[in-house]
Amino acid sequence: MPFAFRRLVPADLPLLHRWLQEPHVRAFYDDGLRTLADVDAYYAPEWDGPNLLYLASEDGVPFAYLQAYRIADHPAYAAAVQVGATDAAIDMLIGEPDRAGRGLGGPLLRQFAEEVVAPATGAHVIWIGPSPDNTRAICAYTKAGFVPVKTVRIPTTGEDEYFMRLALDGPRSG
Hints:
Blueprint: E1 4-7, H1 13-21, H2 23-26, H3 36-43, E2 52-58, E3 61-70, H4 75-81, E4 88-94, H5 105-121, E5 125-128, H6 135-143, E6 147-154, E7 159-167
Parallel strand pairs: 4-5
Antiparallel strand pairs: 1-2, 2-3, 3-4, 5-7, 6-7
Helix pairs in contact: 1-3, 5-6
C-alpha cells in the first residue's frame, strides 16, 4: 500500500497538535506539548534544523507524523546510542485514531525509510527506539524489517529505548 510523504510546514501544526493530544499517541509519544503555542515553540527551531519532518497520507488524507535525522547530528544522543557514524534514526506516530491499530505502521515505516530517509541522509542503516513497553510499535517495526539490538538509557530523558536496526542495501554500519 503506497503512502505519500510531504514535508511538515507551519500550517500543519494545528493537525500535529491535535494528534499529540490523542490518548493512543500520548501513551508512548508525549513531549508534554499541551497547547498549540507549545507545539509551535517546540517546532519553530526545527524549520531550519537538520531533522527531516514529514506527514504521511493515505488516499490524500494525512494520518501520521514521521521525523528522521542523522544520529551524528545530535552528539549527546549519538554518545548514548553508540551506532555507526553515518546511521540515521526515525521517530513516528500514527495520529488519526481510526488509522491506529490497522497494520499500517510496518509498511509506512519501511516505505519512509526507503523512499525518504535513505536518499535524504545517505544512511544504509536506520534505527528506531520505541519504549520497551510499546509492544504494538515493536511488532510493527519488526514487520518493517527492524531487528531488536539493544536497550539504551537516554540520558536527556532518563528513559529506555528498545533500539531496533534496519539495514538497507548498501554499506553496513552500527
